[in-house]
TrEMBL record:
<dbReference type="InterPro" id="IPR002347">
    <property type="entry name" value="SDR_fam"/>
</dbReference>
<keyword id="KW-0560">Oxidoreductase</keyword>
<dbReference type="GO" id="GO:0016491">
    <property type="term" value="F:oxidoreductase activity"/>
</dbReference>
<protein>
    <submittedName>
        <fullName>NAD(P)-binding protein</fullName>
    </submittedName>
</protein>
<dbReference type="InterPro" id="IPR051911">
    <property type="entry name" value="SDR_oxidoreductase"/>
</dbReference>
<dbReference type="InterPro" id="IPR036291">
    <property type="entry name" value="NAD(P)-bd_dom_sf"/>
</dbReference>
<dbReference type="Pfam" id="PF00106">
    <property type="entry name" value="adh_short"/>
</dbReference>
<comment type="similarity">
    <text>Belongs to the short-chain dehydrogenases/reductases (SDR) family.</text>
</comment>
Length: 133
């Protein structure tokens, strides 16, 4: 491929998200890496240019933030999630709701924004969406 693709990856801090950031960078693509704690990716700055990847703080449960991360994008890898390990009876309902907000509603918010972007703003209507779930 002659022209690099622009990737938007949510949940870039670890696991599949980080692996996708590193893979796309190694292929010469342009990265927009989003995560709640951007400093987690500081080590990538020593391996790549100061602007690659472009790291943006994003909480997928905040729909306004989600709407504002879209620009010139070719691929969206919707990977943000949270998990915790503990006994069910030790889990507060507030913590369980926060988990659902991130893992379900966060994925929905990014998916809605992706579809809207590819239909309305991407001039060629081209794009790919990859959801982990």
């Amino acid at each position: 491929q002659s022209t690099p693709r622009v990737w938007l990856i949510t949940g870039s801090s670890s696991s599949f998200g980080r692996a996708m950031v590193e893979e796309a960078l190694s292929n010469g693509d342009i990265m927009v890496a989003t995560l709640r704690k951007p400093s987690v990716l500081d080590d990538l700055a020593t391996k790549h240019s100061p602007t690659q990847p472009l790291v943006i703080e994003l909480d997928v449960t905040n729909e306004d933030q989600v709407k504002h991360v879209f620009g010139r994008i070719h691929v969206v890898y919707n990977n943000a999630f949270q998990m915790f390990l503990q006994e069910l009876e030790a889990t507060s309902i507030e913590r369980a709701r926060a988990l659902m907000d991130a893992n379900f509603w966060g994925a929905v918010a990014v998916s809605f924004a992706t579809v809207r972007f590819f239909r309305e703003e991407n001039p060629n209507g081209l794009g790919e969406c990859s959801c982990k779930y």
